[in-house]
């Protein structure tokens, strides 16, 4: 108990030092930084065997929290609830391999981007689907609910999608991949790094060479807390400039990049 009090006092002292330089900010709970996420999105966020959390987003968030003198709290939920949870003031930020979109900008504010995501197509190894155009031929596509992959694929054919009737939304990426393995869908559209992790973990799947859409990942903060947005963004920029962000990303995905370079 005593330890907690000391930690909190120290935290408060650090916050006060920071507020001298930047605008004062508040968080959901004093001394803490609550991060809404869906910890089923490797290598950005996933659970560890001992019930903790790890991944690129978790580590960058931890480094941001440390810079701000706060303790990171990971709040794991369905991806579809992350933005609303921040809007409702239950969490301070959403960090979930979250793509910046115009529509989302109406609901939350975004920091600078810290990573690029690419939507890719996973198919069974023996599939007749070779390009994204082949998805149009009466195929069923599995996506993760509420994601940009779902939004693009379910859009009308005129808008470059395949139509809502051709897309099935699953609660998370792992369930969409399971549906692909059992033949319930013909392909899964999902972000490239999680796609690689799912293909590595399951036999008989491959990723098509074609990139579907390239996007920017950023941290979402409530529109009602511009001071916190600024504080998080300043911390993020510092971590990008001093190489911390690159080091964290490299720790989780450099091995894949090397592998790709070797096969090119
Ligand atoms: N990048 C995608 C999106 O923002 C998927 C994110 C996720 O599933 N965690 O919609």
Question: How would you explain this protein's 3D organization?
Answer:
The structure is a single chain. With 264 residues, the protein is an alpha/beta fold. It has helices at residues 2-21, 56-67, 79-87, 102-105, 148-154, 173-181, 192-201, 226-241, 244-263; strands at 32-37, 40-41, 45-47, 53-54, 71-76, 93-94, 108-124, 141-144, 167-170, 187-191, 205-207, 213-222. Strand 2 and strand 3 (45-47) form a beta hairpin. The longest helix has 20 residues, at 2-21. Residues 1-8, 16-21 and 257-264 have low confidence and may be disordered.
Query: Number of helical runs?
Result: 9
Would you identify the regions where 5 or more consecutive residues have pLDDT less than 50?
A: 1-8, 16-21, 257-264
Bound ligands, named by name, code or SMILES: glutamine
End-to-end distance, in Å? 56 Å
What's the topology here?
Elements: H1 2-21, E1 32-37, E2 40-41, E3 45-47, E4 53-54, H2 56-67, E5 71-76, H3 79-87, E6 93-94, H4 102-105, E7 108-124, E8 141-144, H5 148-154, E9 167-170, H6 173-181, E10 187-191, H7 192-201, E11 205-207, E12 213-222, H8 226-241, H9 244-263
Parallel strand pairs: 1-5, 1-6, 8-9, 8-10
Antiparallel strand pairs: 2-3, 3-4, 6-12, 7-10, 7-11, 7-12
In short:
By secondary structure, the chain is of the alpha/beta class.
Short key terms for the protein model shown above:
nine-stranded mixed β-sheet; binds glutamine; 12 strands; alpha/beta; single chain; disordered C terminus; three-stranded antiparallel β-sheet
């Amino acid at each position: 108990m005593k330890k907690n009090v000391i930690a909190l006092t120290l935290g408060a002292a650090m916050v006060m030092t920071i507020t001298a330089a930047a605008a004062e900010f508040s968080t959901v709970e004093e001394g803490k930084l609550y991060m809404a996420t869906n910890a089923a999105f490797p290598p950005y966020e996933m659970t560890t065997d001992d019930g903790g959390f790890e991944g690129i987003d978790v580590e960058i968030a931890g480094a941001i929290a440390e810079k701000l003198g706060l303790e990171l709290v990971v709040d794991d939920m369905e991806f579809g609830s992350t933005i609303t949870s921040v809007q409702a003031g239950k969490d301070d930020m959403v960090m979930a391999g979250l793509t910046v979109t115009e529509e989302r900008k109406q609901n939350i504010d975004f920091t600078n981007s810290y990573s690029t995501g690419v939507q890719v197509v996973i198919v069974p190894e023996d599939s007749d689907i070779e390009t994204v155009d082949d998805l149009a031929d009466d195929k069923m596509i599995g996506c993760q609910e509420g994601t940009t992959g779902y939004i693009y694929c379910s859009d009308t054919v005129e808008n470059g999608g395949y139509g809502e009737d051709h897309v099935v939304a699953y609660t998370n990426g792992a369930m969409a991949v399971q549906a692909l393995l059992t033949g319930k869908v013909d392909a899964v559209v999902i972000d490239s790094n999680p796609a690689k992790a799912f293909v590595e973990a399951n036999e008989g799947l491959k990723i098509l060479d074609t990139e579907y859409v390239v996007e920017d990942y950023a941290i979402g903060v409530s529109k009602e807390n511009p001071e916190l947005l600024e504080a998080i963004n300043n911390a993020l920029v510092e971590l990008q400039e001093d190489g911390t962000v690159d080091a964290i990303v490299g720790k989780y995905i450099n091995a894949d990049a090397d592998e790709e370079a070797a096969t090119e």
